[in-house]
Write a structure and sequence with these properties.
- The complex is a heterotetramer of chains A (about 375), B (about 160), C (about 180) and D (about 375).
- Helix content of chain A is about 65%, strand content about 0%.
- With about 375 residues, chain A is mainly alpha-helical.
- Chain A folds into two domains: about 1-85, no CATH class; about 85-370, no CATH class.
- Residues about 165-175 of chain C have low confidence and may be disordered.
- Classes of the chains: A mainly alpha (about 375), B alpha/beta (about 160), C alpha+beta (about 180), D alpha+beta (about 375).
- The interface of A and C includes residues 59 and 338 of A.
Amino acid sequence: MEALAISLIKAVPFLGAVPVWAVALVLMVAVAAVVLAFALTFEGVGSLVLRKVAGDIQVRIGPNRVGPNGVLQFLADGVKLILKEDLTPASADRPLFKMAPYFVFVGSFAGFVVVPFGVGLIAADLNIGVYYVMAVSSLVVIGILLAGWSSNNKWALLGGMRGAAQIISYEIPVGLALIPAVMIAGSLSLQDIVRSQGGLWGIFGWNLFHNPFTFFSFFLYFTAAQAETNQTPFDLPEAESELVSGYNVEYSGIRFGYFFLAEFGDMFVVAALTTALFLGGWNIPFFHAETLPWIWGNLLSLGVFLGKAFTIVLIMMWVRWTLPRIRVDQLMRLSWKYLIPLTFFNLLGVSLWLLVFNGKGIPAMIASLFG
Amino acid sequence: MNPLNAQAIFDTLKGKFGDSVVELQSEGCSPAYVVVAPGSIKEVARFLKDAPALSFDSLMCLSGVDYKDNFAVTYHVYSMANRHSVGLKAMLPRENPSLPSVDDVWPAANFQEREAYDLLGIVFEGSKDLRRILLPPDWEGHPLRKDYKYPESYHGIKV
Amino acid sequence: MGLKEYLNDIVEAVVTTAKGMRITARYGLDPKEETTLQYPEERWELPERYRGFLHNDINTCISCNMCVKTCPMDCISLEAVRGADKKMVLASYDINIGRCMYCGLCVEVCPPKSLKHSLGYEMASVNREQLILRFVQEDASEVKARVARQVAEAAAKAESPAAGKPAPPAKGETKE
Amino acid sequence: MTARPEALPTQEMTINMGPQHPSTHGVLRVILTTDGEVVTRAVPDVGYLHLGLEKIAERLNYSQFMPFTDRLDYLAGMNCNCAWAWAVEKLAKIEAPERAEYLRVIVSELNRISSHLISFGSFTADMGAFTPFLYGIREREKVNDLFEMLCGQRLTYNYARIGGVSGDAPPGFLEKTREFLDYFEPKIDEYNNLISYNKIFVQRLANVAVISAEEAVAYGLTGPNLRGSGVAFDLRKDEPYSVYPKFDFNVCVGSGERGQLGDCFDRYMVRINEMRESVKILRQAVDQIPEGPVMAKVPRVFKPPVGEVYFRAENPRGENGYYLVSDGSANPYRAKIRAGSFVTMNIFEKVTRGLLIADIVAVIGSFDIILPEIDR
């Protein structure tokens, strides 16, 4: 950001007197605003799409009354959430109760910062990008736990406890399933990881096809990430048919809205990470996005990235409307007995592969066979 | 599988329990029922369940009836093994109707006994858990009695 | 748990999930499978026997009280007075459709088949008064007074030797 | 399921599940005592929907009570209607014409299908998969359309009459029934593929709340819940009434295919398989139905002789018995209703000990209880 600020000061003459940090700060706020706008839009549209997908799958229509074909439904929902009374239960722990939704929302939103939307479209290309995402998404645990505890409601408490146990358990397989991509790229920066998948017409360079182990890694990550973000087969903290609504049962109005937005935010972050780490990120097939003019390169790569990410989101919705919910002991078993051993096995496999074949993937080997 | 008719069941019971088994009523009744002295209902029930020729292992229905002069508890029992059924009836006095509970013979009796207690005020002695079941615990009276007076209000709410 | 079982579990989970997802995808992608009826715009066709609101044709009603007696919910109230020609004249015929459970027993027992289920089913209202269907438009006391007058007139006529034949039958008070 | 070290003393927690809870199928209240998520005691508290039907029956005559039987089990109103009619006919020794009996069997079996569909749907919804619920509802709507055609209502049918049924099948009804059967039969396989054998679903249900055959009989379980424990007892076969002996069908019993015999999965599968058997019965009934009247001669003021009768019919939720005491007047002197769900709740406390909260939901769903039948 500092570098950008300096170049901006150099390019625009009348900024000469302004200190660098001020320009950088303004830029940061601007970028954050853009990302927030994107996140909120996605969360709104996502909720609409979710309901439409649900309608299609469940042989009904879905929302279709607000605006043409129901496309403005999310605005109506948003307005409703904002206008509704924000209740606090009399016996709740008020400060914690009020604070909890922000933790959840911030935890989900902060993940957007390192999402590589395009060649140059990234709010902050951190050199520890992958671990940054994992770290901030853990903030959600605190929010869920606080919400469950402070509501002073037994269902909420159970939901909060389930949420904490679940998210902490699934951090491990999520982290381990991500490492293969990091190892192949040799970097934790998401931009580097995406760039490393650029070769071979932009499709076969994907980590997904790099070797059999990364292929499985993709599915393991997808499953574990579903669980980490409380999506349906693993939505135990909410579990509306068991815990009524789980940790957010006492929330209403905009505070409930934060939980709601965070859920969709998490969904996108997971989809974006999947795309960036396994599906080639913003790499345009048959082109090198970096060689195109700045504006075209960015637009095209943004389109490609969003297309892939939204496909993943759709698949998540599809899974959500198909599968029943897993039980709490089975959830733990799935994590500790299935996902963690399998991700370790995969990690071992990928490391050996990289060692033995000198970092080359199968497509690259085939390509080198044909010259 | 060896189904017995009501007369045979009555004869068996009469032979075993003598005067405790009063009579067999089959006129207009289906299934025919055996009138049993209320005090010995539990022994009769135990015998009905355990005797291999009878083996009435399933209690279909337990109902209390208010016959104006007295109460009755009717047990309709069925044998899954022998595929025969019979009714048992214990006539109780109108004042303080009570008889032994059969819920350790047929666990199925528990809820139905509670229901009879709740709606008719018949006390089942030795029941595992005799509480009101359908009505609130503080409800007054037993609505299925023929002389039941409908209350005006319940906790200040007009009924 | 053996390794075979372990792997079997994983395979089974994946296969059954895929099977289920294929079915949901088919329904999701096939627009013909939608079954929702957009209610106020679209309605389903009601069968002939549909039991909607009750309607009494008071021109043919003979005030026999059968419907009142047979109604398990006591939702019909009927008031009738004997007219000048010895026939019953309806003074009021009200059906409280807030209590009615549309069982159709009253329709079955109606001797002249004047009471029928209509096809109507939409009558949301904000107070319970509006849920009482009144079939005799006149006020009950007015009807009674009028019938009493007619009866008195007929009696007067019958007494006077000039009038040899009975009074014309009192017309049903009908303006449905 | 959970071994807890005794060295860690923890406080038990009392949770009120219901009367407003999404998965208690109405207003059932279960007072849970839990140790974390493990239920140490679950006491059902019923009666929130007490209708006083038995008291109502005493002040109405036999035919007036017919519409109230719809409310007894609102998902299987036809079955309750017919059972009441059969019970009163047994008391008064009336025989309904054969065509009426066939129609009663047809509507009973159709209603059994639609009731099992709701059971299937709400059960899967309780397990967290909402989609199958709507598929079930979709098929149920088609059954409701048939009923609407036949008797004019979609939920509270009031179709059976003492001595027959209220109306003959309208033209096209039998054809539409056949069409529905052709449409519906493949759907059962679809349900199985979609959810029944789904790994997660099976895992949720297998070995949960196992009821042995002896326990099931002793606790008076009936219907699919009894058969789920492996007891092949079906009133339609073992105490045949109406024209059921003329039809060829199997009694579905649990097989313990995914766990112990008598677990939630067995009870669920019995219902799924029973829909197939109902289709089988329906096909035969629709083909064999004779011509003729649909009402026997019953005097308008109907007074059965003095007597006492216990009649039970196989309803979707188990045995629906009516114990009728007649004193010769037009009103029943006493009408005791024995409902499957009510007796089933008796075993609830016993089987739920040591389960997880999520399993409580599964048990309630697998018992397929309905509250007006419990509370009456």
